[in-house]
Amino acid sequence: MGILLAFAPFIAFAVLDRLVGPVEGLIAGALVSATMLLRDWMSPGRTPKILEVGTVLLFGGLALYAVAGGPTRSVMGVRLLVDAGLLLIVLISIALRRPFTLQYAREQVAHEFWDDPRFIHTNYVITGVWALAFLVLVIADLVLLYRPDLPPRFGILATVLALVGAIKFTSWYPERRRSAAGTV
Question: Among 59, 109, 131, 170, which is most exposed with the fewest C-beta within 10 angstroms?
Fold first, then answer.
């Protein structure tokens, strides 16, 4: 559940982007992500996570740029920046050898499993699937940016399929690994 809550800033962005506009969506994303980061800093037993720090930087930077009067981008252009930024955060977490899902998974399992190579490998695989899902979003954004004649439902369908697939995989894969290893 924690990993899904981490996407609340992106949901806030998407809703306000659609209802009001991209600048308001960016501001909402920045405020929600900052609130979540503060919650982790101030709550005992919680620590800020790579995804949350990256999200604050992404939305905060884009919101400041937009409010400061940076070049106006289309709705699709802003979505592309947000989705590409999310993909970049995930890829950076892998490059830093701290796949973003690992921090959430450690909140769900006993400490003795944290350094288990199978546990770590599982999180690399899951993080890779999320990276693939975000790559699908970026590609859909690019297609819609360069082919505005396509119906918006193309992007909606690609987004829903990619994210639902990543969510289902995140639930399914650890169970499959445990079954294959004969552990519960």
Answer: 109
